[in-house]
């Protein structure tokens, strides 16, 4: 080889080295090992309007076992709630000498009684479910003495389950669905 060829080859190698060094310097000109690195993250938020919680279903409206009667007479054995509605369990009583058909149509006298009770309970095992209508009028009467006026107060229908003996029988007026719209207990005056 000629000297000229060697020199051309050396110049080409030097030029290649210079290009490689320049390229490497552009990639990482930082002289400190482990240089700072910045990473940018953009969060993505996905919302769906279809994931709204559904409201709890409303309980079914209670039904009456006394549909078709205008009046019911007896004692309240239990009071409960179905949703926002008060529901009474009624033990039906019989007014002595009064046919049940007539009682169901016309009711019983609501005046206080003296002495022996004018009613009887012929079946303590069978009860009737009667829901209480909104705005029902419920009155509790108390007889202090036969010659004194009755003491009367308005109460919540649930209080009818806690009436004392001789004051715990109640005349219930029902609407066409068998729901209680008014109630009056029939008190016995002290003997």
From TrEMBL:
Task: Extract the ranges annotated as region (Disordered).
Answer: 46-69
Q: State the organism's lineage.
A: Bacteria, Bacillati, Actinomycetota, Actinomycetes, Micrococcales
Q: Which residues form the signal peptide?
A: 1-25
Print the keywords alphabetically.
Signal
Q: Which PROSITE patterns match?
A: PROKAR_LIPOPROTEIN
In Swiss-Prot or TrEMBL terms, this protein is called Lipoprotein
